[in-house]
Amino acid sequence: MDVNNNNIGDNTELRARGDWNQIKGAAKQKWGQLTDDDMSYDEGKQDEWFGRLEQKTGHAIDDIKDWFSKTFSGTSNDPNRPSNQNSR
């Protein structure tokens, strides 16, 4: 289900909210030019936030959304989740 019509499943979005510090760190590792200010997210301003990320990273919004979705939609034991990569 996608209540926000943002092409990110609600379960993924809820999980993302719970792991926000982890998400910010992973995004800043992927796109080294991102700052804490770039990762500042205001409720209801998701389109503006994705626009800032698009401008800063040079990647299309759909590619950025796809990365977030793929990176954080796995199960808690998924080896591709950043929190599970530290234990290798």
Automatic annotation (TrEMBL):
Biased composition range(s): Polar residues: 1-10, 70-88
- Entry's InterPro entries? CsbD (IPR008462), UPF0337_stress_rsp (IPR050423), YjbJ_sf (IPR036629)
Q: What ranges does the record give for the region Disordered, renumbered to this chain?
A: 1-20, 69-88
Could you tell me which residue ranges the CsbD-like domain spans?
Answer: 15-66
- Any one Pfam family here would be CsbD
The Swiss-Prot or TrEMBL record describes its family as follows: Belongs to the UPF0337 (CsbD) family.
Q: Which PANTHER family match?
A: UPF0337 PROTEIN YJBJ
Q: What is this protein called?
A: CsbD-like domain-containing protein
* Source species of the chain: Hymenobacter ginsengisoli
